[in-house]
Every structure is written in C-alpha cells, then in structure tokens.
Amino acid sequence: MASSSSSNALMALPFALLACSSLLAIASAGNFYQDFDITWGDGRGKILNNGDLLSLSLDKTSGSGFQSKKEYLFGKIDMQLKLVPGNSAGTVTAYYLSSQGPTHDEIDFEFLGNLSGDPYTLHTNVFTQGKGNREMQFHLWFDPTMDFHTYSILWNPQHVIFMVDNIPIRDFKNLESRGIAFPKKQPMRIYSSLWNAEDWATRGGLIKTDWSKAPFTASYRDFNAKTSTTSPDAGWFNQQLDSTSQERMKWVQSNYMIYNYCSDAKRFPQGLPAECSIA
C-alpha cells in the first residue's frame, strides 16, 4: 500500500508536473454525437450540451455504457472524466480500448470506487492475444471526483503508455523480440461503462454498494483522438518517454502504486511473467 507520507510527496512535486494538467484540457475535443454510441443502460447514458458532455449512471436495476463509432489501430486517446462522488463503494467506471474475440487485445483503465473519504483505486491492465494478468494499481494524487481530469492512452508500435493529466504512470513496451506479445495488429474501439461490481471492487468485496446513494453518475468531456489519419506528423507514432517523463513515472510508481503484478511472486509460483525481468 502507499505510505502515509505519499500525500506529502505532492508538495515536492515540481510545478511542471502540475502544469501538465492544463495542457490537454485545451486540445481540440470531439463531439460525442459524432464519435460515440450509447450502447446499453436504457436511458441511463446521456449525451448533453450539444454533444460536449456525456454522462453514465448506475442504479440498482442497471448500469450504462458507450462505445466509439470508429476503430483505432494506434493513436493518442485522451478523455476527461469526473468520477462518481461520495460513497462510490462497489462501483466500477471502466474506460478502455478493446478488440473482439477470444484472442482479443485490450488496454484498460478501471476506477474502483470506495467509501466516502477513501481513495479510488485506478486499475490498469494490458491484454495481448486474449491474455491479461498484467495488473498495476494506483491511488491518485488528487480527488478524481471533484473535477475533470485527463486520462490518456498513447498506443504506438513500440509502447502502450498510460497517462493521468499528461503524467505517465505506466509504460508497457514492445518486447516481441523477447517472445512477449504486443498489441499491434488488431484495431480496437473505445469503450466505457459504469457498473456494479460489489462482489470484488471495494476491499475484495467486503464493502457493498449503498443503493440509497443511487443513482451514481460519472461524466465525460473533451474526447480527443490523434491517429495516423488526424495527426500523421504529430510525433505520437514514434513517441517514447524521455528522461523527464521517466522521472515523473518513477515518482508516481514510488508514491502511489499499490499493486504491481511483477512483484507478486505468490500469484505466479511458476515464475513471474517474462516482461517483469526485462528493464
């Protein structure tokens, strides 16, 4: 778990990191009517403000979800989210890229709710050819329910980089030369959903959803996708982490990472996954 001093580490965080949070907010945003379809929830998902805002809600009957109209093969995908406030225990807000089928690829953000005042858990995972089990989990250095924050996936032929307010938190590298699969052949759609996972989401299922607080609502805005079609010369296709970005990621992982599959020897008695031993 993150140490009690983690919250103090933010005070020492260079101003440049905090300034990054505003950079993506001014990126050109898409329109939810043009870019997404609400796919389930019987009216619980809504597109508002002339297509500038989307909300998902969850009650005891159903959650809700949406998906992108387009498929993407590589891209820089940004979305601003404001998560379920208050007692969100038992709820999961998922935001991810995925292809279809038994050998699908998938790149996951999942936000696991918690009791009022306790931190959300940001859960990340990467599936390649149907195989996942690459979970890394974090707490955040801010309250993700108070305002919108930008959650990004940079996916190019060499890296899958997860970012929060333009600060990298995880870099899954292409290690195909070492026999490790990498998602690079299957186009993926963007999906998001808000659903009830009280059997596992909060403290392993010990804390159940308080339906007296329903409906639970998460909000989305400022979607932006840079792809080979929209931004062919933007640099994202060959982007990797420079030394400053690596230091930012190290700061996050040192202070806010609460689970790393590469450190869970009990889970993998036959040996840790091969990528865990490669720097």
Tell me about this structure.
By secondary structure, the chain is mostly beta strands. Helix content is 11%, strand content 34%. The protein contains 4 helices and 15 strands. The strands form 2 sheets. It has an 8-stranded antiparallel beta sheet with strand order 1-4-13-6-7-8-9-15. The protein has a 7-stranded antiparallel beta sheet with strand order 2-3-14-5-10-11-12. Strand 6 and strand 7 form a beta hairpin. The longest helix is centred in the C-terminal third of the chain and has 14 residues, at 243-256. The protein is globular, with a radius of gyration of 18 Å.
Structure summarized in a few sentences:
This protein has 279 residues and is mainly beta.
Descriptive keywords:
eight-stranded antiparallel sheet; seven-stranded antiparallel sheet; 11% helix; 279 residues; 15 strands; 4 helices; globular; mainly beta; disordered N terminus
